[in-house]
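Researcher: Let's do a round of design. I'm pasting the structure tokens now; please hold your answer until I've finished.
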């Protein structure tokens, strides 16, 4: 777009003239995310080999692509592809978005090389790309993949559209919005030398002699040329135009998450399986080797943690799992004589939060139908993404949460011969000395009522994925004061009761008994988690342990 023009000409010699032309030119196009203050680190690429126990010497490999998409990202991707020597590895992407032109180029490169793509995060088991002085053997890194908390937002879906197989599981997040077009005004001054020959101008050469920044401006609506360009790209990739309409209908300041059913209807995804569809160790079983399987005899890189490239653990003399190693969900019925036959029930959630935690919670909730039981949680923390996913499940089901522990009566559900009676295990809840640390506090934040009694302990410390945590807390209607409090701490620290109330993390300083105490079933109205004990001949409920 030329918004101004200036000519200055003077005689050079009898038959030649020099003309200086100054004009203003527009700049590049970018998604609204490009103008955000912090999109995180630039996208990095790494070839990753599965660290699944027992898969060596033949294990699946993939390309990890994590970070924001910048103008130089396609060049980095091309460099990565050259190292593969024609091998076709799936791309596992996790990106908040970025530059549109770069995303389109990445999508075309992925399609040209006939690569599959999935939304997921790579969890590195030792070193990771860009870590100083750290690179695993044979230019490969070791790790696993999860889709909890993984995202592909803004410009990223355009890159994603390039895959041959396009995989997005139920835990992945794909969002789009309107394009922000940024015009950067640049004043260019040219020197044009020409000669008059026979009364006509003959240009000899043109050269830029100066370049000055003349400001910029933005528009928040998709221009017709850009719309036409994106429509042609999506059509080339076999994607329905519904995706483009969704982009146009979502303000640049927002993100519209596209549901899995809608992604299927738009042909944006070819599968709603988890990311493991492209990276699972089972892909390399004898007789069904996938194209991304590779044999590396004697592969055991120095310095690799015990989870990578190790033989399967012995079947005997294994150390019994500690109670807090992996979060377990159990339906519990209070056993205080004061409540029979109408006693409260709750979900006991105890142990470390792992990538499987949110899925276990979803499975248990499915057995309960529409029943709403409070969650009594005790955990030292763990996987951030799974904690956020579990918190969203709790919030979606409108469940209350209290920090506490369950003391089981009769037998512990972990014992092989301990069975639920009439759909629940017998127990009592207490909160004295019970902890809910780090990621556990974020899971707690999903509750409608959030109780931390005076004898319980809750602590937090600065976490990674700042923007994701901040957005999650906003989603849970918890004010920015909590995020600010987390950011001010350099080490894990216990939150005082008054502070928890002030920042909105808790809704009350009541103990767990407010949700599970023996006398709550006498209240009017009667709490939803109270249940009169069915007769001995009644049909038992669904399984109550996960």
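Researcher: That's everything. Go ahead.
Model: Designed sequence:
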């Amino acid at each position: 777009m030329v918004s101004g023009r200036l000519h200055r000409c003077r005689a050079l010699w009898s038959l030649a003239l020099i003309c200086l032309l100054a004009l203003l030119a527009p700049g590049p196009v970018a998604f609204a995310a490009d103008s955000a203050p912090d999109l995180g680190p630039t996208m990095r690429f790494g070839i990753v080999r599965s660290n699944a126990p027992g898969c060596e010497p033949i294990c699946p490999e993939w390309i990890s692509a994590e970070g924001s998409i910048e103008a130089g990202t396609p060049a980095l991707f091309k460099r990565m592809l050259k190292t593969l020597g024609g091998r076709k590895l799936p791309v596992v992407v996790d990106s908040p978005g970025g530059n549109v032109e770069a995303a389109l180029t990445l999508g075309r490169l992925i399609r040209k090389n006939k690569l599959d793509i999935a939304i997921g995060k790579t969890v590195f088991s030792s070193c990771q790309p860009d870590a100083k002085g750290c690179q695993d053997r044979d230019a490969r890194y070791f790790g696993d993949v999860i889709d909890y908390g993984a995202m592909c937002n803004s410009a990223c879906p355009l890159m994603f559209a390039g895959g041959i197989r396009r995989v997005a599981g139920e835990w992945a997040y794909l969002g789009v919005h309107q394009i922000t077009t940024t015009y950067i005004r640049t004043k260019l001054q040219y020197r044009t030398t020409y000669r008059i020959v026979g009364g006509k101008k003959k240009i000899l050469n043109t050269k830029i002699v100066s370049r000055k920044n003349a400001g910029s401006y933005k528009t928040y609506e998709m221009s017709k040329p850009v719309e036409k360009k994106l429509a042609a790209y999506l059509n080339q990739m076999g994607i329905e135009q519904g995706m483009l309409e969704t982009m146009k209908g979502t303000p640049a300041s927002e993100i519209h998450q596209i549901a899995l059913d809608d992604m299927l209807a738009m042909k944006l995804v070819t599968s709603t399986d988890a990311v493991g569809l492209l990276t699972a160790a089972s892909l390399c079983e004898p007789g069904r080797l996938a194209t991304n399987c590779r044999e590396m005899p004697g592969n055991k890189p120095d310095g690799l943690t015990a989870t990578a490239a190790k033989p399967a653990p012995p079947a005997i003399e294994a150390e019994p799992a500690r109670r807090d190693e992996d979060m377990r969900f159990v339906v519990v019925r209070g056993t205080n004589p004061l409540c029979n036959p109408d006693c409260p029930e709750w979900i006991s959630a105890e142990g470390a939060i792992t990538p499987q935690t949110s899925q276990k919670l979803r499975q248990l909730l499915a057995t309960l139908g529409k029943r709403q039981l409070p969650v009594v949680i005790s955990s030292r923390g763990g996987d951030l993404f799974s904690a956020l996913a579990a918190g969203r499940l709790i919030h979606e089901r409108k469940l209350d949460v209290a920090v506490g522990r369950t003391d089981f009566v009769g037998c512990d559900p972990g014992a092989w011969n301990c069975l639920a009676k009439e759909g629940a295990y017998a127990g009592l809840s207490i909160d004295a000395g019970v902890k809910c640390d780090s990621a556990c506090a974020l899971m707690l934040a999903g509750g409608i009522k959030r109780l931390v009694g005076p004898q319980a302990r809750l602590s937090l410390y600065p976490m990674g994925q700042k923007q994701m945590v901040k957005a999650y807390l906003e989603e849970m209607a918890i004010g920015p004061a909590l995020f600010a409090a987390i950011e001010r701490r350099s080490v894990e620290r216990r939150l005082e009761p008054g502070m928890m109330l002030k920042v909105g993390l808790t809704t009350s300083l009541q103990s767990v008994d407010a949700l599970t105490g023996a006398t709550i079933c006498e209240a009017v109205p009667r709490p939803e988690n109270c249940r009169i004990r069915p007769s001995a001949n009644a049909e038992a409920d669904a399984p109550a342990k996960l």
